[in-house]
Write a structure and sequence with these properties.
single chain; alpha/beta; Rossmann fold; two-stranded antiparallel ribbon; globular
């Protein structure tokens, strides 16, 4: 029998309206992540919150100790839930995330959060490389537009490309409703 963990990555104030690095569709992603949190808590799944802080106080966002680096109120950790502080894109790098999963006998990982093409992708690939079957809840993940070689790539395309890459070899992709339906 599998033992699942829900990992909620970087749903922090700076990504929301009025923050220093706003993402598109972040409110909808956070709302879906909140539904996932409720379900995980009810079923007794391990919940791990990941919070990013840059090492420098003059960081463009997620400055150490700032309100922007705090976890958004919609997905606040409860007492007893692990909070992993990271300083890199990959939530496993330089953190105790893998030890938390292993110490709790976790066999399967579900991921939600931000950003699609960065921290969600980094954690998903690392988790898969460590041998965990990974499910990414694609509508509980958000990102923003990017620019490459003078061309702006809309957030929806950035998100779709990131999810397509993860779905190709690293993770099962599901919508929140589909995941919650199958979880019952």
């Amino acid at each position: 029998m599998s033992k699942r963990a829900l990992i909620v990555i970087d749903l922090q104030n700076d990504y929301f309206s009025g923050g220093k690095f706003e993402l598109e569709n972040i409110e909808a992603a956070a709302d879906n992540a909140a539904h996932l949190l409720d379900a995980a808590r009810q079923s007794g799944d391990l919940v791990v919150h990941v919070r990013h802080e840059f090492a420098s106080a003059d960081a463009p966002f997620f400055a150490p100790g700032s309100d922007g680096a705090a976890i958004h109120p919609s997905v606040q950790p409860r007492d007893g839930e692990a909070v992993v502080l990271k300083n890199a894109v990959n939530a496993f790098k330089g953190t105790d995330l893998k030890a938390i999963l292993d110490d709790n006998g976790i066999t399967d990982v579900t991921i939600a959060g931000a950003m699609s093409h960065m921290c969600v992708e980094g954690a998903t690939r690392a988790a898969a490389d460590y041998g965990y079957p990974v499910t990414v809840i694609h509508d509980a993940v958000a990102t923003r537009a990017l620019e490459f070689n003078g061309e702006v790539i809309p957030a929806a395309q950035v998100h779709a490309a990131a999810m397509a890459a993860l779905g190709f070899a690293y993770a099962t992709l599901q919508a929140t409703d589909e995941y919650l339906e199958n979880k019952v």
